[in-house]
Amino acid sequence: MNDVAPYTPPKVWTWDKENGGKFASTNRPIAGATHEKELPVGNHPLQLYSLATPNGVKVTIMLEELLARGHAGAEYDAYTIRIGNGDQFGSGFVEVNPNSKIPALLDRTDPKKPIRVFESGSILFYLAEKFGEFLPTDPAKRAETMNWLFWQMGSAPYLGGGFGHFYAYAPEKWEYPINRFAMETKRQMDVLDRRLAETRYIAGDEYTIADIAIWPWYGTLALGKIYNDAGTFLEVESYKNVQRWTKEIAERRAVKRGRVVNRVNGEPHELLEERHSAADIDKLGL
């Protein structure tokens, strides 16, 4: 029996600044900058401001995949935005992304008319179109790729903000939200497993931005490298087709290189706070 008194919402919600556990210092119900801070600008046309969360890793993997295919124009500078410190609320970052979420990309190919791109799915699509890679031109294959890209964008909040938050980050463990979001996460893993029983990659026989978007979330979960022991809790080994897919992608050199960019926690050989050239990653032996 649950002996905790049920919560009765007040007529009007008010912000309790101390509520929110690990993220209480940065979560807030209003948008906009909290302080003045310009963003640094490197020498390459593409400027990335990010952190190696699953959403951030999508973009660095994409950029490393483009470089692996010989696109010199995909060279980039990557600067770390420490979201725990509130860097995302600096005035310069808010100018690039008014939603104050990483990742954010500034394309300065034309310095007089820089193009801002925010939301990880939008960045993947932008880069795929800019360089003509990882997005099929055949209408049916293109539509299938976009189907799965948007599936990820709509589904991941249940995994990260739902399951991940209540299972790993919430200040108290509550059975109902953990069960609710564990059920949904397992349903999503089953969706992927059934799809990958039919095809090598998510959208078909080609490696696309759908794989690049989905792998940092669901592939990392399948490898048991996210949310503490969540892999055991969710029995991720039972999703055999997802396991086959995630292990294959994990071995791609561009994936190994993209994972370390803007990473600030982990083993020394996988940390690269800033990236300004391929040599920065080469030093890590990747």
Radius of gyration: 20 Å
Major β-sheet profile: 4 strands, mixed
Strand order, main sheet: write it out. 2-1-3-4
The helical percent reads 40-55%
Provide the succession of SSEs. Answer: EHEHEEHHHHHHHH
Overall outline: globular
Brief summary of the model shown:
By secondary structure, the protein is an alpha+beta fold. It contains 10 helices and 4 strands; from the N terminus they run βαβαββαααααααα.
Task: Give the SSE layout.
Elements: E1 46-50, H1 54-68, E2 76-80, H2 91-96, E3 104-107, E4 115-118, H3 120-131, H4 139-169, H5 175-196, H6 209-222, H7 230-233, H8 240-250, H9 253-260, H10 278-282
Parallel strand pairs: 1-2
Antiparallel strand pairs: 1-3, 3-4
Helix pairs in contact: 1-3, 1-6, 1-9, 4-5, 4-6, 5-8, 6-8
Describe the 3D structure.
This protein has 286 residues and is of the alpha+beta class. The protein has helices at 54-68, 91-96, 120-131, 139-169, 175-196, 209-222, 230-233, 240-250, 253-260, 278-282, and strands at residues 46-50, 76-80, 104-107, 115-118. It has a 4-stranded mixed β-sheet with strand order 2-1-3-4, with helices on one face. Helix 1 links the parallel strand 1 and strand 2. It is globular, with a radius of gyration of 20 Å.
Index terms:
four-stranded mixed β-sheet, 45% helix, alpha+beta, 286 residues
